[in-house]
Amino acid sequence: ATSGCRTGVASRQPRQESFEQAPMYVAVMTYLGFGIVTLFGYLRDFLRAVGLEKCHLAQEREEQKDFVPLYQDFENFYTRNLYMRVRDNWNRPICSLPGPVFDLMERVSDDYNWTFRLTGGTIHNAINMGSYNYLGFAENNADFLKTVADKTRQYGVGVGSTRQEIGNLGIHEELEQLVANFLRVESSMTFGMGFATNSMNIPALVGKGCLILSDELNHTSLILGARLSGALIRVFKHNNMHSLEKMLREAISSGQPRTHRPWKKILIMVEGIYSMEGSLVRLPEIVALKKKYKAYLYLDEAHSIGAVGPTGRGVTELFNVNPSDVDVMMGTFTKSFGAAGGYIAGKKELVDYLRSHSHSAVYATAMSPPVTEQIIRAMKCIMGKDGSTEGIRRIHKLAENTRYFRARLKEMGFIIYGNDDSPVVPILLYMPGKVVAFAREMLERKIGVVVVGFPATPITEARARFCLSAAHTKAMLNQVLHHMNEVGDHLCLKFSRLKYSSCPNLHDEKDFELGS
Amino acid sequence: MFMLLTHSQPCFFSFYTNNINMASGQQWVLVEMVQAFYEAPAYHLILEGILILWIIRLLFSKTYKLHETYRLTEKEKEDLIEEWQPEPLVPPVSKDHPSLSYDVVTGPPSHNIIINGKECINFASFNFLGLLDNERVKQKALASLKKYGVGTCGPRGFYGTFDVHLELESRLANFMKTEEAIIYSYGFATIASAIPAYSKRGDIIFVDEAACFSIQKGLQASRSFIKYFKHNDMEDLERLLKEQELEDHKNPRKARVTRKFIVVEGLYINTADICPLPELLKLKYKYKVRIFLEESMSFGVLGEHGRGVTEHFGVNIDDIDLISANMENAVASIGGFCCGRSFVIDHQRLSGQGYCFSASLPPMLAAAAIEALNIMEEDPDIFTVLREKCKHVYTALQGTPGLKLVGVQFAPALHLQLERSSGSRDSDMQLLRTIVEYVSPTRGVALTLARYLEKEERFLPSPSIRVVVTIEQTDQDIQKAVSCIQEAASAVLK
Fold first, then answer.
1. Which among B277, B342, B361 is positioned nearest to B315, based on CA atoms?
2. Part of which pathway (chain A) (predicted)?
């Protein structure tokens, strides 16, 4: 393959990020929809209270009826009356590998979603547009998984102890070396669960007297870690550098609230790709701000590691930022590596401190050996260390799929959020009824999609979220697009008022680095 | 009408209202008003005038801001920003910090463990039923690997629910004889996500002082009022409950919505003793408090069939609101589960943060757990054998010179503490570390110090050595270990 021309060492311009607003009538209809469902909810509650409708909810024990109720009625209003009606779209059980195609277990409800019954049937070979399988490492090819099977035979699956006691296996140290090499930093440390990586390590880094500036759309694990640390949290508007700078200036000049003592540390927490919006972080600008105001940067690359960047090293590579400029690089292995767990990487002092002071190292069981081996082999594949070009091929395929899919959806007239480079594609559906109809209709056509609504997204912006994979072939994507087109017309989902040309922009091809 | 002119109120207002009552024509009101105006005394008019001007002034003046005087100029802000120096991100850790150097285990951490190159008998991993190395478990894991690969690539809500997960949940519910079970992908996150799902700001939790770290994190995340009672001291707990009852009488409206919980462990990991469950149940019904039971150390250990402390005491399992355990000890897999009635457990499917926002358990680990449950169900004798071995170790380690054994005789993870502390924690830890290094690797018995985060623990336990009994240890192994420990203790603690 010929080598394409790169755009040199200058910092890469971020691609267009679009967050098109829907027409006004859509917002009105959405609120109306929620209003009607809420009214029906009240009606149902009344009928249940009066006894005209059977109450399907599980009840408290007779012996404990005089205890303080475990759940307040109004807390569960949304769950009882809105979520229950449509909950067949979530928690769908599958009985195969979560690859580009999968087998869904057939599930029916005889009482309007209060209980489900598995019929025993399977929906074979549905296209999987919901699993986080960016580089296609969720595979069960015996050759690829040979080392993982060997390690299972050798070690078993459990560990039985914590890292600091007797659970530190040689294979863990090998993985940490490899992760540090991959990310081009000094050293790294790995943990058994991605969520816990955030919630257990942020309290070790910051505490009372520190300030955390966190993006509006940060993931729950980051928010939980920040809360558990005891530091003061301030939220800045999503990806808005003015808001962040203003907050930094205010914070440093006025100090801690009430006492006005200077802050011990200021930590800016951002994510690489925000999975609900599909937007990328504005990394060069944040690094410039952080250097100017002497703050520290915590970058959570759960969705972006392995999925963006010419060689899959994440947003630092995409934006041509030196990895040592980011103080704490965190990521997970669940998405692009097809395993489980998380890591924190950075300077040697940081990682040494975490080895001795992280909650996970002292109290939580170490990572399982076959899972560790899967990450090692996936990472070696991406880096090219296994002697093949499979890794690079997958990264290019993912970039190509992303570009193609996004362009075609925009052409069709859907409103898509996010950056053109991000493999997470949220399609706005807005109205609660349409969200549910979309998910069910796509299932009928054997395509598994993920839909999200309130409270994960703002109340008027319910969406369907597609996760592209390097394992998706062009044929699969075309099939999905074909069905999307039909369903979009059928349900009137094409809200976009902008026009997109169908021929690819020639400028885009220049940034595409072809094979080795 | 004229009487009102001498009234103390502003005359034209009262005049006007009076005129409304009289229902006269419009022109009458105006004429009367002008007439009243001319006939009013001068001082009255002047006073009215001043009042009106004052009101206008107050309406248009700026509101008084408290921080008006504290606003900084741009130059001052720049100076402050220049001058501010943050602390380093992490404080420097000295090279010979004891927690920095990890022991490296090459090979599986099963009965014969290779630490730092030397082969030892494992008395340190929580492999109570010896299932870490079990062939059947490994075969099932391999079969699952062939079918599902390794990761699940998604949380439970988004195609991360596999048939293996559903099967494991129903098997666990059957095993524990409860209605429902829910599994988590990480043992630590289980109780730490379960507690905040039920207990919110304003609720009250009574918890034992010796509760483990994951419970403490769950309590912190819940933002409820935490009341600690002395370890296993039911009188102290009753005192706290009585105090709370008095508070409730004073404010019955608030008490009607304040939930109250007791959180205890079956077998405590920090003190290796058992909670007095029957007394706790009496207190539960007397004071109307719910009980959450953490059974990581007692699941698969206590009870005739390994169902834990409820079976040990013969208590009806429905009396406990929530039982939480991790699958990383007896079950030799990864992850954790909560079980109980559907009324309680189903709530976590939408509010348990570690369940909703995290990827699900890899299917091969779930398959390994199912096979471990199969083995536990087929052969309930292993629990009796384990408890016999625990008793053996317990009696053998009594009378070690300089060390005291902490725990009950059927606890599989015991602590050896110094009989007499030297006064400083660091020197105590150093002595115990010397004992551990004496015993392994040269003598071939692997032990470990119990590790804690000293600054984060609320009630830091005394330094100790962990002694773990597993079913694979033979009498000879136990004999060897005990004699090594006794030799080491007498050598180091002269």
1. B277
2. Lipid metabolism; sphingolipid metabolism; Sphingolipid metabolism
How far, in whole angstroms, is CA B451 from its chain's centroid?
18
The pLDDT assigned to A16 comes to 67
How much of chain B is helix, strand and coil, in % rounded to 5? 50, 15, 40
* CA–CA separation, A247 and B366 (whole Å): 46
Chain A residues whose beta carbon lies within 8 Å of the beta carbon of residue B137: 156-157
Beta-carbon-side half-sphere exposure of residue A439 (alpha carbons within 13 Å): 26
Hey, what are B461's tokens?
A: 């336990």
The helix (run of H) or strand (run of E) holding residue A86 is helix A84-86
Which residues have CB under 8 Å from B454's CB, separation 6+? B425, B460
Measure B491 CA to nearest chain A CA, in Å: 24
Q: pLDDT value at position B66? A: 61
Q: How far is CA A515 from the centre of its chain?
A: 28
Query: CB under 8 Å to B429, separation ≥6 — which residues?
Result: B98, B449, B463
Per-residue pLDDT averaged across B472-488, rounded?
90
Judged by CB atoms closer than 8 Å, whether chains meet at B328 and A159 is answered as: yes
- What residues contact residue A432 under an 8 Å CB cut-off, 6+ apart? A30, A33, A34, A37, A82, A86, A453, A462
Pair A96, B148: CB distance under 8 Å: yes
- Cβ-based contacts of B154 with chain A (< 8 Å): 98, 130-132
Does the distance separating the beta carbons of B141 and A58 come in below 8 Å? no
A431: which 2 tokens? 């109205």
User: B145 at the A interface (CB within 8 A)?
Assistant: yes
DSSP characters for B134-185? -HHHHHHHHHHHHHH-S---SBTTTT-EEHHHHHHHHHHHHHHT-SEEEEES
From chain A, the residues in CB contact with B358 under 8 A are 193-196, 221
Overall average pLDDT of the A130-146 stretch: 88
String of DSSP letters for B92-121: ---TT-TTTSPPPB-S--SSEEEETTEEEE
For residue B464, list chain A residues with Cβ-Cβ distance below 8 A: none
Of the partner residues B137, B288, B364, the one whose CB lies closest to the CB of residue A68: B288
Strands B322-326, B290-294: pairing kind: parallel
CA distances from residue B36 to A172, B13, B22, B50 in whole angstroms, order as listed: 98, 11, 17, 19
Sign of CA dihedral B241, B244, B250, B256: negative
Distance CA B331, CA A430 (A): 46
Query: Nearest-CA neighbor of B274 among B380, B174, B179, B387?
Result: B387
User: B306 is written with which tokens?
Assistant: 């390994």
